[in-house]
Write a structure and sequence with these properties.
Number of helices: 12
Largest sheet: 4 strands, parallel
Number of strands: 8
Distance between the termini: 20 Å
Oligomer: single chain
Number of domains: 2
Structural class: alpha/beta
Order of helices and strands: HEHHHEHEHEHEHHEHEHEH
CATH class of the largest domain: Alpha Beta
């Protein structure tokens, strides 16, 4: 099948030849010639904040006055989100690991909502002669904004409408595949486990009993209707869809390993909690809120709480504000010892794991040989029909998947 046929086919958009038949796993080598690091983006100065928030909320008709209320979180940090600098560090770390392995692949970084934009990154890659790109998005879990929207971004950028570059068309088109979601890859989980283990060990060493310690695994809340639509249509994940199931499976793995490795930790309990809700009160979002749970812990005899930012790959503004500020304050008010464990950031295991995922696609590693630490994985290379739909938005073209 030619690349042009792939592009026009109703089931697969802008994919490499190997991914064009719609099989869930690409188990043959693919000669990718560049990596696309795709992220959310964030402002880098006070003047950037409102334009950035307009991009994030585009199409929702939110007035600047309301955006300014959200902007206060950024204003308190000089109008700078940490995410772009973290992506620069991740980019450098990935380049170093890719070079160490002799893979010879350049990495181009582009954002959805702020400079450098994805359009610019893809255009730079194309100008440098690269045509078969493999995208690595800085999101590990299934949901519209963390998975499908990136694939829509890729299709839009390659297309000829809505400001697209048109690079996915013509006789020598650019294609973009996407690595599988890596929520249960060992390299992603290891930094979280180390943080939980350190916090619990320290509190046990202080003389606290295991049943005085609670671990709260926190992730971004999303509308309940969208959570139910996360994941493909042909799998049943229970309440909250794949989004909740994936987070819960990772938390269960971490706590089971903790019980095996730390004597006396059997009594340590845990909860999956949510943060950063932004929808109207009338719209159901995933609960419980991390602050509400913290306030109730003393009544259960808890004296120490470790909050694990399980849904985040690095210290985003939501981590700095919602956890380091608000959750910490909630713990202080409840009289609890508090620890926020690290995000993966540029932890060596995480960086190595990301490059493992790249090599997996370069080599066409069979699905049965791919590392994963939960029963839900390994996740798909080519997204399945209906995967990560949005409850209020019709299906739009999306690369690296089968229609819709």
């Amino acid at each position: 099948m030619s690349t042009e046929a792939q592009k026009s086919d109703s089931t697969v958009l802008y994919s490499s030849v190997a991914a064009a038949d719609g099989s869930p796993f690409v188990e043959e080598p693919v000669s990718y010639d560049a990596i696309l690091l795709a992220s959310f983006g964030g402002p880098e100065g006070q003047d950037d904040v409102i334009p950035y928030l307009r991009n994030v909320t585009r199409g929702r008709g939110i007035p600047d006055e309301r955006l300014e209320e959200v902007a206060t979180h950024y204003r308190q940090h000089g109008g700078v989100s940490p995410i772009n600098q973290q992506n620069r560090q991740l980019l450098a770390a990935m380049e170093q690991e890719i070079a160490r392995r002799g893979l010879g692949l350049p990495v181009y970084w582009g954002n959805r909502n702020w400079h450098p934009f994805l359009e610019d990154a893809v255009q730079r890659a194309a100008a440098d002669g690269h045509r078969t790109l493999l995208a690595m998005a800085t999101s590990a879990y299934s949901s519209y904004s963390s998975d499908r929207q990136y694939r829509e971004d890729f299709a839009r950028v390659l297309g000829q409408n809505d400001g697209g570059t048109g690079l996915g068309h013509g006789d020598d088109p650019v294609t973009i595949d996407k690595v599988r979601l890596f929520f249960d890859h060992p390299g992603f989980i290891e930094p979280f486990y180390e943080g939980v283990k350190s916090a619990v060990e320290n509190w046990l060493a202080e003389g606290r009993a295991g049943n005085e310690i609670r671990v709260l695994f926190s992730t971004h809340s999303i509308p309940t209707a969208d959570a139910e639509l996360s994941g493909p249509r042909d799998r049943e994940f229970g309440e909250g869809g794949a989004y909740v199931a994936q987070h819960r499976a990772v938390a269960e793995y971490i706590m089971a390993r903790l019980r095996e490795e730390i004597l006396g930790s059997e009594g340590v309990g845990w909860d999956l909690v949510y943060q950063s809700r932004s929808g109207p009160p009338s719209q159901p979002w995933l609960e419980p809120d991390v602050n509400d749970v913290i306030s109730e812990l003393p009544a259960s005899g808890i004296t120490a709480v470790a909050v694990v930012p399980l849904g985040f790959v690095s210290d985003h503004m939501e981590v700095l504000w919602d956890l380091d500020t608000e959750a910490r304050q909630s713990a202080e008010e409840a009289g609890l010892a508090f620890m926020r464990t690290p995000t993966p950031g540029i932890h060596p295991a995480y960086v190595a794991g990301l490059v493992d995922l790249i090599e997996e696609r370069l080599q066409g590693t069979p699905a049965a040989e791919r590392p994963h630490l939960t029963d839900l994985g390994p996740w798909y290379d080519v997204s399945r029909p209906g995967d990560c739909a949005h409850s209020q938005i019709d299906f739009r073209p999306a690369a690296a998947g089968v229609a819709p």
